[in-house]
Write a structure and sequence with these properties.
The complex is a heterodimer.
Chain A (H helix, E strand, L loop, with lengths): L4 H14 L4 H8 L6 E4 L6 H6 L3 E4 L23 H10 L8 E5 L3 H13 L4 E5 L7 H23 L5 H27 L6 H13 L2 H16 L9 E6 L8 H9 L2 E6 L18 H11 L17 H10 L3 E7 L3 H16 L4 E6 L7 H19 L1
Parallel strand pairs in A: 1-2, 1-3, 3-4, 5-6, 5-7, 7-8
Helix pairs in contact in A: 1-8, 1-9, 6-11, 7-9, 8-9, 10-14
Chain B lengths: L1 H7 L7 H18 L1 H4 L2 E4 L7 H6 L2 E4 L1 H10 L3 H10 L8 H11 L15 E6 L4 H13 L2 E6 L10 H23 L5 H23 L12 H11 L6 H19 L5 E2 L2 E2 L5 E6 L7 H9 L3 E6 L19 H11 L6 H14 L4 E7 L3 H4 L2 H12 L3 E6 L9 H22 L8
Parallel strand pairs in B: 1-2, 1-3, 3-4, 7-8, 7-9, 9-10
Antiparallel strand pairs in B: 5-6
Helix pairs in contact in B: 1-2, 2-12, 5-7, 6-7, 9-14, 10-11, 10-12, 13-18, 15-17
The chains are: A alpha/beta, B alpha/beta.
Bound molecules: iron/sulfur cluster (2 copies).
């Protein structure tokens, strides 16, 4: 029996996803002398700058449900989410011993504090808290961010042992522009024909982008779009949902699967936002650092980890997403103890309520095993949406 | 917080400073309650990154939701507010200060002193050292639909204040914070007025530092955690930069000086503490719903806290920083950047290690707060690092700020008792065995 090209692609992605030793990234590093790898956590870092230094950006997203956490629990109280402890586990068990730098973006106080823990625990690794402005004016937050990006570039130059020229940066921006275009194409394809591009496949496909060099990932996305078009997959009577709250700690793979089994087509989500954080192409002309900064300030995704300066706009992005994708409801799925997701949730729910959009909410942990309750809840939700739409 | 404790303990605590603070707090809540009649405008802001001097420049009253939550915790009202907010859809997992505040508002916004609290005219979202702040004020903005100013304090990820951080903050102050406060209040900004307030702040800060450092004496004349929470009240709240605060800290200092001369230990709710047996450094906020019982578990055993990180959460002054009238906006920026929860973990470890050594403590105790990722995430590593560096035993307890469901007296007491035993054992192992010399 021949394996379909789609299956082949997805199996490759699955193997990358399951590999907690990051063999692909290790092999990339070993393939040429002097290569370096820089890890980053959610939610956003400008991977272009790492790429421009000739280094591999590696998404570090915790240990999922396959990693046995033995040491990590000794670092965290029970009321703190799972991702930092499994990330520590990856660190202390040597699974990240090939990583030369670690970036901890400004997303919440847990990841913020993990940046200092990394400094204490792995002093030989370059660890950096990557701050971004919460003020979006070019002359205020923009200036600050441009200077931060320049300092970051200096750091990476030291780590790489070479200069990062503006042309290097432009070439990297170009590579990531293309990647983001394809990512959005895949997302658009799924929201058009969710029966053809299931959420489980899209997730694995995007996860591959956390470990592969960007050029390779872009090709993979292209191949997938070509392959999946030839698949003959039946349309089911599922309801269309937007999935929100999963921007940091990853849901167990089975959770995404369960939602589909429960009768939901995921037509949009906030998983792995780094793959499409910047909306639209970053211009190649002009100063590349300034362009990255402007893109961040004016053309980036909305999410719970960000401040919304305009009260009237609060949560509206979610309504727009629902409209754009033709979704019939929203599923709030947040990691337990996740401040950004859980503090923001009531405000987003108020906005949905005003727009008459139904929603449900539950929590998960990256290592949750029992999916039955979630499956039931999602199943009931899907059924009730169908009933409403029929009535 | 302070007057509430004073009320509960007025039979023993009669220090002049305490009475003065009690009057100051009651007056403050009266002014807030009367804001509608007097026409005073109100700003809400946070304790870490509190820009009280600037707020006063615009004749605004400063209402601090964290302080209201604390006060409600001490009066045992917060538990039901927290539940009210949870009923309204707020997660059981998030900070209970926020829920206490939202629950209080949902029940009619009657403040801890039994008088109504005014709606804010402006929310000064001084985003300093805590992610929750951002969402808290988005939640309040949703409710009050009032002007909201984001002042973003970058985190000291590498343990340093860079010029870029300072410039960014000063620019936000000049171009966003001050113009908006002018618009909301109708009062023109006068930098000389700010300088005057800052000059006043620095005086109070000198005396506060003197008081906190008096705990280096043996016996310590103060408890720098439970007692310290009274002492930080005025300067962390709505009084920094006022003459009232300066007076308060002057009285306080004189009282502590007198205690040192008399060789006395700290004042506790049950009177003077007896013999000082253990000297501790404490990391993390306290529990407020059982504040007095919690404290008692220490003083009954002769344990005194000689230094704490919580008393640095509204400003770290003991390493030399003072508000500076000659560099008003820069010093407000440096103040925000330097608060305890805006410091990275290695800095926190250094600070606590320094406290254990400088204050000749027996060890570090961490009170880990369920609500607070800013403080709590990483504390187990902090504990191990400080233990390793000082060679002194450390211990870990878990409670919550204002949610009584997470204060388990028996557990806490057990933990403390075994910790005191550990300290004893450590001491015994250091003493040369009797007869070993013969
Ligand atoms: S899951 Fe939420 S709380 Fe945990 S590290 Fe991520 S953003 Fe922070
Ligand atoms: S207790 Fe912690 S989480 Fe809550 S508001 Fe204060 S600093 Fe933030």
């Amino acid at each position: 029996m021949t394996v379909s090209p789609t299956t082949e692609i997805i199996e490759r992605c699955r193997a990358l996803f399951d590999d907690l030793q990051f063999t692909a990234a290790r092999e990339w590093k070993a393939a040429a002398p002097g290569r370096k790898v820089v890890g980053y956590m959610p939610i956003y870092v400008p991977r272009e700058i790492i790429h421009a230094a000739g280094m591999l950006p590696l998404g570090v997203l915790g240990g999922g449900d396959q990693l046995e956490v033995i040491h990590g629990d000794a670092y965290y109280q029970s009321y703190i989410c799972r991702i930092p402890r499994s990330t520590i586990e990856l660190g202390v068990t040597g699974r990240l011993d090939f990583v030369d730098g670690m970036l901890f973006p400004s997303i919440c106080d847990v990841i913020r504090n993990l940046s200092g823990m990394w400094k204490l625990m792995f002093p030989e690794v370059y660890s950096h808290y990557f701050d971004v402005p919460q003020n979006y004016r070019d002359d205020i937050g923009g200036n600050y961010y441009i200077n931060e990006l320049k300092l970051f570039r200096d750091d990476l130059e030291r780590l790489a042992g070479r200069k990062i020229t503006d042309d290097d940066l432009r070439a990297s921006i170009d590579a990531y522009n293309e990647n983001r275009r394809l990512v959005r194409e895949v997302y658009a394809y799924r929201s058009d024909q969710p029966w053809k591009a299931p959420a489980t496949e899209i997730y694995l496909l995007m996860r591959a982008g956390m470990v592969l060099p960007v050029e390779e990932h872009t090709q993979l996305l292209r191949d997938y779009l070509g392959a999946v078009e030839t698949e003959d997959r039946p349309i089911r009577d599922n309801c269309r949902v937007v999935l929100i709250g999963m921007f940091c700690e990853q849901p167990p793979f089975n959770l995404i699967k369960s939602l589909e089994l429960a009768g939901c087509y995921v037509v949009d989500d906030d998983l792995l936002l780094v793959t499409r954080w910047l909306i639209g192409d970053v211009p190649l002309e002009g100063d590349p650092i300034e362009n990255l900064a402007k893109a961040f300030l004016h053309h980036s995704e909305d999410t719970s980890a960000k401040y919304e300066p305009d009260a009237a706009e609060k949560g509206k992005y979610l309504v727009r997403t629902v409209k754009r994708t033709g979704a019939e409801g929203v599923i709030f799925a947040a990691p337990s103890f996740c401040d950004p997701a859980l503090l923001d949730r009531p405000m987003l729910q108020h906005v949905l309520k005003d727009a008459d959009i139904p929603y449900i909410a539950f929590k998960y942990a990256e290592n949750s095993g029992q999916m039955q309750p979630i499956r039931e809840q999602a199943g009931t939700f899907a059924d009730s949406i169908k009933l409403w739409s029929e009535s | 917080m302070n007057a509430a404790v004073a009320k509960a303990t007025h039979e023993v605590v009669k220090d002049g400073s305490m009475l003065k603070q009690k009057g100051m707090m009651a007056g403050h809540y009266d002014r807030l309650a009367a804001a509608g009649e007097t026409g005073s405008k109100v700003a809400c802001t946070f304790v870490p990154g509190n820009l009280n001097e600037l707020i006063m420049c615009f004749d605004l009253l400063n209402n601090l939701p964290e302080v209201n939550a604390i006060q409600n915790g001490l009066r045992k009202k917060s538990g039901s507010f927290v539940m009210e907010a949870e009923k309204d859809g707020h997660s059981e997992d998030v900070c209970t200060y926020v829920k206490s505040d939202l629950g209080m508002i949902a029940r009619g916004n009657i403040g801890p002193y039994g008088k109504p609290l005014p709606d804010p005219d402006v929310l000064l979202l001084s985003y300093t050292g805590c992610f929750t702040f951002m969402k808290w004020f988005e939640l309040l903005r949703e409710r009050y639909n009032c002007e909201t100013i984001m002042l973003h304090t970058p985190y000291k990820g590498d343990g340093e204040i860079t010029q870029n951080m300072r410039d960014y903050m000063v620019k936000q102050l000049k171009e966003e914070v001050i113009p908006t406060l002018e618009r909301v209040s109708g009062v023109k900004f006068d930098i000389d007025r700010l300088r005057e307030y800052l000059r006043e702040s620095a005086k109070a800060e000198d005396d506060l530092v003197w008081v906190l450092q008096s705990a280096k004496n043996k016996p310590s004349p103060i408890d720098a955690y439970f007692g310290g929470i009274y002492y930080i009240g005025p300067i962390f709240g709505a009084f920094r930069g006022t003459e009232d605060a300066t007076d308060y800290y002057r009285y306080l200092r004189a009282e502590v000086e007198a205690r040192i001369q008399q060789g006395l230990g700290p004042v506790t709710p049950d009177g003077d503490m007896g013999e000082e047996k253990y000297r501790l450094v404490v990391e993390g906020p306290p529990n407020y719903t059982s504040f007095r019982d919690f404290w008692k578990m220490f003083y009954e055993e002769g344990a005194v806290v000689v230094a704490s990180s919580y008393t640095k959460v509204g400003g770290v002054y003991d390493f030399g920083f003072r508000h500076d009238p000659d560099h008003p906006l820069e010093s407000l920026a440096d103040y925000c950047l330097g608060v305890y929860t805006n410091r990275n973990l290695p800095e926190r470890v250094d600070m606590l290690t320094n406290y254990v050594e400088e204050y000749q403590a027996d060890g570090l105790l961490i009170n880990s707060i369920k609500s607070c990722n800013s403080f709590s995430a990483g504390q187990l590593l902090i504990m191990r690092e400080v233990e390793k560096r000082t060679g002194k035993p450390a211990a870990f307890i878990e409670t919550d700020l204002v949610d009584p469901r997470y204060f388990s007296p028996a557990n806490v007491k057990n933990r403390l008792e075994s910790y005191f035993q550990m300290i004893e054992q450590k001491r015994a192992s250091k003493r040369p065995a009797v007869g070993a010399m013969a």
